[in-house]
Structure formats: C-alpha cells, structure tokens
Design brief:
Number of helices: 0
Structural class: mainly beta
Number of strands: 12
Low-confidence stretches: none
Order of helices and strands: EEEEEEEEEEEE
Length: 155
C-alpha cells in the first residue's frame, strides 16, 4: 500500500528520484535530482527532503531545497535519524574530484556541516552510519576506472 501521495519533481529532464534515501523510521525521505546538462549548461542539480505526516497522509517539504553544480544529487543519503543528509556531486572535467556535502538539520533549515572532496571522479555510493555524530563511507571511481572506499568521521 502506498504511503502518502506521489511526490512529483520538476521537468522530465531533472532526473528527480534518481537517488533516494529514507530515515530509519521511514518518516523522512531525501530525493536527488542530478539533472541533465542542456544546451548552454543549464541543469537542475538539486536535492530535496520530505517529512511524512501520519495525520494527513502527506509528504511535506523538510527544510529548503539544496542545489549545487554538475551532478549534484546523483547520490543522497540520510542518517538513520534523518537529521543529517549527504549529497554527492560529480567531479568536473578539469579536476576530476567528487564533492560530498554533509548537511545538518537545524530547526527547519539545512545548514552545511562540511564538504568532502575525493580523488575519484564520482562518488557512486554513500552511507551515513549511526555512529554519533556520524561517519561517512564513500565509494567511488577515478579516471583510471579504479574503485575505492573512503571512510570519514566528523571530529
């Protein structure tokens, strides 16, 4: 049985829903929309979070929409409690390094906690663990098509 109404993205080219992550209790959902580069370099490159309400059976925006550069939102991951959100962005053709931003919910606003830049051209998977405050595991691929895993901890 479906929970709440369908969540609709923007344009068909925004790839809304390419990446999704759910909090441990199923009440908070993060959705990535890495977009497609269009002529003249326009794209959407965003991530959004939603909170589910049992009383209304609706998904409502949770914090503001987050946006970045090329491929931002191609991987998203929520911490188990839904209070931290990691969003990955592709490396560009010049420096070939991925960027992962870790955001923390403060009241009703996502605040940037920190940025991670890896040597791979793309972060292919991420996991925000339940370790407090959190650890981030990032798997990626570099230009030579080598893969690897990096583990980060917020000190």
């Amino acid at each position: 049985c479906q929970i709440g109404r369908s969540i609709i993205g923007g344009d068909y080219e925004d790839l809304f829903g390419e990446a999704v992550s759910l909090s441990a209790d199923g009440q908070i959902l993060a959705i990535g929309a890495p977009g497609i580069i269009q002529w003249f370099g326009f794209g959407c490159f965003l991530a959004r979070a939603y909170r589910y309400s049992d009383s209304t059976n609706e998904w409502s925006p949770y914090g503001q929409e987050l946006s970045g550069d090329y491929g931002f939102g191609h991987v998203v991951d929520l911490s188990p409690d839904g209070m931290s959100l990691a969003v990955a962005q592709f490396g560009d053709e010049f420096d070939a390094k991925y960027l992962v931003q870790v955001w923390e919910m403060r009241g009703s606003i996502w605040e940037l906690g920190f940025n991670l830049t890896g040597s791979a051209s793309a972060a292919l998977s991420m996991d925000l663990s339940a370790i407090s405050p959190y650890a981030l595991v990032v798997g990626g691929i570099d230009i030579a098509n080598s893969t690897g895993i990096n583990l980060y901890h917020n000190n």
